[in-house]
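<instruction>
Derive structure tokens from the sequence
<data>
Labelled lines for chain and fold:
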Amino acid sequence: MDKIAQIKSFLESAPADSFLRHALALEYVKINDDAAARATFEALLAADPGYVGSYFHLGKVLERLGERDAAAATYEKGMDIARQQRDMHAYNELQAAHEDL
């Protein structure tokens, strides 16, 4: 069983597991399926906006898709969430990505 199928199998018993959803999106990134990665990250963040690690990766996907404004907005929202959570490591990564746009 490949990793995507394995993660989907785990999600059947825990569909709201943000870690698994994030892992699934990253697997889509690895196979260059940016559309599936985007949809997975967006669904994850709609359900769990506090899952700060996904903002960076979604922003990178949006950059690859040529959606600079959406990427910038994603990084900004992620920075806000990271600041609220006092997660300065995530904040700094998001800020650096935002500045590199």
Observations:
- DSSP finds six helices and no strands in the chain.
- The mean pLDDT is 97.
- Helices lie at 3-13, 18-30, 34-47, 53-64, 68-85, 88-100.
- The two ends are 37 Å apart (CA to CA).
